[in-house]
Amino acid sequence: MKIETIKEKLSDAVSKAERVTSKNASLKTLSCILLEAKGQELFVRATNLDVGVEFRFSSKNSEEGIFSLTASSLRSFLSNSKQAKEVVLEKKENLLEIKSGSSVGELVLESSEDFPTIPRVEGGVSFQILTEEFLSGIKAVFWAASLSQIKPELSSVYFYEDNDDLVFVATDSFRLAEKRVKTKKIKKFSPILIPFRNVSEIIRILDGGRGELTISANKNQISIETEGVYITSRLIDGNFPDYKQIIPKEFQTKATVLKEEFAGALKLASSFSDKFNQSSISLLPSKKKLVVKSESKGSGEVVEEVLGSFEGEDSSMFFNHKYILEAIPSLNSSSITISMNGSGRPMVIKENSNSNFLYLVMPMNK
Amino acid sequence: MQDLIEKDDAWGKVLGNIELELSKANFTTWFKGTSLVKVDDGMVFVGVPNAFVKDWLINKYHKIILKYLRDLSHEVRGIEYTIIKDTSPQKTVEKPVVKNVFSTELPLADLYINKDDNLNPRYTFENFVIGPFNELAYAASQAVIKKMASYNPLFFYGSTGRGKTHLIQAIGNHLKKDNPSIKIFYISSDRFSHEYTSAVQEGKINIFKEKYRKYDVFIMDDIQFLSKKEKTQEELFHLFNYLHENNKQIIFSSDQHPNYIPDLEERLKSRFVSGMIIDIPAPDFESRAAIIKNKAKFRNFSLPEATIEFLAGAVEGNIRELEGILNTLICQTELKGRELDVSEVKNLIKDSAKPQKTVSVKDVIKVISKYYDLEENILIDKTRKKDVVKPRQVAMYILREDYNISFPSIGQKLGGRDHTTVIHSCEKIKEEIKNNPGLTRELTEIRSML
Question: Which residues of A have a CB under 8 Å from any CB of B?
Fold first, then answer.
């Protein structure tokens, strides 16, 4: 059996697939990827039994066939071998011969019999969304999810539809990020909770892609399909906290500042803060400025002022600046609105131009 | 067939057979976390942890599973695989505990103690149990809520765990709910004195004074800790005067009547007693039962009548202790996954329950003579000196009331006196308690020494 295909396509698929294989599985086959030549297409599959992924692209096959091999060896051959447009794979007994330009490799094959199937989602709903829209939503919030596994619903990204908007939310109970993505008419579906770890794989695989995604989901499983890619992930069957009740409706203090200046002040503060990443942020309408201050016994103290427009009472609280800096890339406008509500209440950061992104962060006790 | 499959750990047998045929890695990957959900009319429902496993079992192992199930019963028609959550046993054990810790908290600290007024929103009148023992305290609280400063200051005292903190915080929470613009502040005397000292140290005493003078309702818990802190007392005295003059509501709690708080300045004492002083005594049996029921309901937990009665009987006085026992019970029940019977409950609370009093008569006499600074023998002697007669009567009273010893035997132990003498003595002390608060106090102190 002989397969000819574009090297770049195979290389891309294999390196993405390698990430979803499990590294230290008791079952050898889970660290492998599966290649299947069928018709005029080549399929590349991998799974760690949490996420499953399948890539499909055109190839010239002498006959149909299926084989599996360790993902890492194939990936390193493809990435380090001589540059070439095409790659030729040929199965010989239990070896796979690969030719790429002047590089030739013979890789040991594993049994493809035990390779798990990638499940399809049965029942449930399915709807279409643009890749860019989906990625912009999920990328804007997923970093705010909890790393701890104690509450699976918090170490997940929550998304639901709300009046033709897709809403993505993640929280670790100290901060919360919410992103609304306006879409064309979208089908009603019940809220979905994707495990955080799987979300980062999904992002990596879809990143840079265009066109429409077809998302199908039932209670336990979600699948995302686009041109040549099929991803499926386990879902969390749980209840996301009713987060809307903790978003403050009114504000004591409000400030509008330039995002870059604010981020700059926080970065400066971050190099001088104590081990708790603590910085004080003061909104001072009386002086028409925002003051970021941080100090530590070891390295001293630093203060930076940011000008902007302000309203309300003076207010000052301590925050983990790391939490705020993490939100900066998700804010898409050049100026941002920061609001506070007195001590012990969360600070809210929004884009100035619209209310598509909302970030809530709790102050620290000092 | 149903019985045959469900009984005898049928799934365990099937797994055992399959394990022999597969490699260890294959078996653990695909069969760990599977279980038998139910059997319905020949269809066997197998629970699997996720869609990957489901797919794989259908494609790869369906035949062997079916074969071994048929070995157990010929009536098995087919297998249905369903995805269920958390089938592994260790997780189900873990879960209730985790739940206990986390389910009571909302994310983002919104329900925590409010930092503006220090009030804990958990303390409300809705979950406050009113019984004969605290109805007066409750009535006074309601009066204050209806009309601020109708009793000023309002002073509650009672031993620990009687619900003082709950009551005074509930007043604060209720006032806040009725009128959010009222400035309320709750603080324990200990924190007050701490804040005061740091304000003095940092030279910010004026800020401190100003802060406290702006409140409309000032609630201070556990006043007794102010004892010996003279400067703090003085500050409180001025604050009190200011608030009182401006008709702001002041509420205090303490574990003793202000007159008995040691090392408290006279001028403070007299101010504390100038409003309304309410004693919260130990809850009676019915109230204790009601409290247990209420607390259990609040935690969404049902307790059988017998257990409630047993708990109410076994734990006297301290409500906090009741709550602790209830927590233990809930935890144990969730762990065991079934209701505990009374004997298990007994075993659980063996350390918390009031010990049976087994103090000997001799010890009682010893303690009482020591308390009144007398020789032990004098109590037994025939002397009728006034300073001996009273302690002797007290001894008889305590032996009778607390230890239920018969009148004749008390008489005999205390120098061969007639039982009528003992009866008379007990009556006399009972009578005197009504008129002499000092005596009540002496009795409490002696009892605490026993």
Answer: 25-28, 30, 47, 49-50, 52, 114, 116-119, 121, 150-151, 154, 171, 173-174, 176, 219-221, 232, 234, 237, 241, 243, 245-246, 342-344, 346, 360, 362
Same-domain pairing of A28 and A132: no
CA-based angle B15:B20:B25, to the nearest 5?
A: 85
CA distance B61 to B262: 80
Distance from CA of B118 to the nearest CA of A (A): 11
Of A25, A121, A241, the CB nearest to B107: A241
- Domain boundary, last residue among A244, A271, A288: A244
Task: Give CA–CA dist A120/A285, Å, rounded.
Answer: 56
Residue from A345, A347, A361, A364 whose CB has the most chain B CBs within 10 Å, to mutate: A345
CATH class of B135-279: alpha beta
Of A47, A118, A344, which has the smallest distance from its Cβ to B115's Cβ? A344
Q: Is the residue at A303 inside a domain?
A: yes
Q: Chain A residue closest to B116 (CA)? A: A343
User: Are B164 and B158 contacting, i.e. CB atoms less than 8 angstroms apart?
Assistant: yes
Q: Which of A236, A170, A229 is nearest to A205 (CA)?
A: A229
Is B108–A171 a contact, with Cβ atoms under 8 angstroms apart?
yes
B153: preceding bond cis by omega (within 30 degrees) = yes
Would you call B87 an interface residue with chain A, using a CB distance cutoff of 8 Å? no
- Tell me: domain B2-87, CATH 1.10.275.10, correct? no
Q: Each residue of B75-131: pLDDT tens digit?
A: 888 888 888 865 333 333 333 333 333 333 334 544 456 667 888 877 888 888 888
Best A112, A169, A173, A359 member to test B by mutation, with max B CBs in 10 Å, is A173
Residues A36 and A81 in one domain: yes
Per the structure, the complete domain to which residue A142 belongs is given by 125-244
Provide the CATH topology of domain B361-449. Chromosomal Replication Initiator Protein Dnaa; Chain: A; (1.10.1750)
Among B424, B421, B404, B403, CA closest to B412: B421
Count of beta carbons in the 10 Å neighbourhood of residue B263: 10
Taking contacts as CB-CB distances below 8 angstroms, the residues of chain A near B104 are none
Given an 8 Å threshold on Cβ–Cβ distance, is B108 in contact with A362? yes
Can you tell me the mean pLDDT for A298-324? 89
Question: Smallest Cβ distance to B108: which of A220, A342, A360?
Answer: A360
Is residue A97 domain-shared with residue A26, that is, in the same domain?
yes
- The CATH number that applies at residue A330 is 3.10.150.10
Q: Which residues neighbour A7 within 8 Å (Cβ) at sequence distance 6 or greater?
A: A78, A84, A85, A86, A87, A100
Strand runs (DSSP E) across A172-265, as ranges? Answer: 175-182, 192-195, 212-217, 221-226, 229-234, 253-258
Residue B53, chain A, CB below 8 Å: the answer is: yes
Whether residues A139 and A200 share a domain: the answer is yes
- The domain tally of chain A equals 3
Domain chopping of chain B, boundaries: 2-87, 135-279, 285-348, 361-449
- The DSSP letter of residue B58 is I
> Is the same domain home to A99 and A53?
yes
Q: Which CATH class is domain B285-348?
A: mainly alpha
Q: Which of A250, A263, A231 is nearest to A311 (CA)?
A: A250
Best mutation target, B29, B56, B101, to test chain A (most A CBs within 10 A): B29
A236 shares its domain with A265 = no
Record: contact A342-B109, CB cut-off 8 A: no
Does residue B29 sit at the A interface (CB-CB below 8 Å)?
yes
Q: How do residues B345-369 score in pLDDT, each as one tens digit?
A: 777 776 655 544 556 777 888 888 8
Output the pLDDT for position B101.
31
Above 80 in pLDDT, residue A69?
yes
Which among A26, A171, A174 has CB closest to B25?
A26
Of A221, A244, A267, the domain-final residue: A244
